[in-house]
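User: quick one, sequence for these tokens?
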């Protein structure tokens, strides 16, 4: 079992991980919890969060579950109360998407994806900025690499991710005087449950120059690097095995 770093309550850094119940978010939460951080997992499904808390405990760490939808302004305000003494790191890996040609995309489908990815990112940042400002904290938004180019059948998701990139850069400038840094990490093909369910995952893998999918741990490495780098703000780090160079 990995050794847990001993940190006193006064020193204990605090992280909120939205989308922390699985995949990339859970990989980040596991790492931070093992290092002795206070970690709060945010997600919509209580059972998934509870399972993640147990996984983290089994790995030698500890985490708290906060059930809430990032699209819910009032619920995110309640999250802000949970960390009102200060927040060191917000990792926003909450998101979701589905494939649909634009001609078949309904208003409900559009809003479901745009609101989760873009509006949710804004709500999280907006509500947690006071806590982040108290500690000169950092935000890392996870944005699928669809934002870099045209994305047939993914217009809603690509537009939302492009919006998150610009939001990240804009807020990086606005919040610099408070010492709050905002960056984004842009994963490519990553070995998650979502990829395994994707009908064209083999086709997607074949385009990656490095010839394989990233692991969630490799993406977590990049996220935590950006979260801890004291002099980087407003940047987007691609973690895609070179995919943006050829696709």
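Assistant:
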């Amino acid at each position: 079992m990995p050794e847990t770093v001993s940190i006193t309550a006064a020193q204990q850094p605090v992280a909120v991980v939205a989308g922390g119940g699985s995949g990339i978010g859970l990989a980040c939460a596991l790492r931070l919890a093992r290092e002795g951080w206070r970690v709060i997992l945010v997600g919509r499904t209580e059972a998934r969060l509870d399972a993640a808390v147990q996984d983290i405990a089994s790995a030698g760490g500890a985490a708290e579950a906060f059930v809430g939808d990032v699209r819910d302004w009032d619920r995110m305000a309640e999250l802000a109360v949970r960390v009102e003494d200060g927040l060191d790191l917000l990792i926003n890996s909450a998101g979701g998407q589905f494939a649909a040609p634009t001609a078949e995309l309904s208003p409900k489908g559009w809003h479901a994806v745009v609101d989760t990815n873009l509006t949710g990112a804004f709500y999280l940042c907006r509500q947690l900025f006071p806590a982040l400002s108290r500690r000169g904290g950092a935000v890392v938004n996870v944005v699928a690499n669809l934002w870099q180019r045209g994305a047939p059948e993914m217009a809603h998701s690509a537009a939302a991710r492009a919006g998150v990139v610009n939001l990240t850069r804009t807020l990086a400038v606005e919040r610099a005087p408070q010492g709050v840094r905002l960056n984004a990490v842009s994963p490519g093909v990553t070995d998650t449950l979502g990829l395994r369910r994707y009908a064209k995952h083999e086709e997607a893998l074949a385009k990656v120059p490095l010839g394989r999918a990233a692991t969630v741990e490799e993406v977590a490495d990049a996220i935590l690097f950006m979260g801890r780098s004291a002099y980087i703000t407003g940047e987007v780090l691609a973690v895609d095995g070179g995919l943006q160079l050829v696709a």
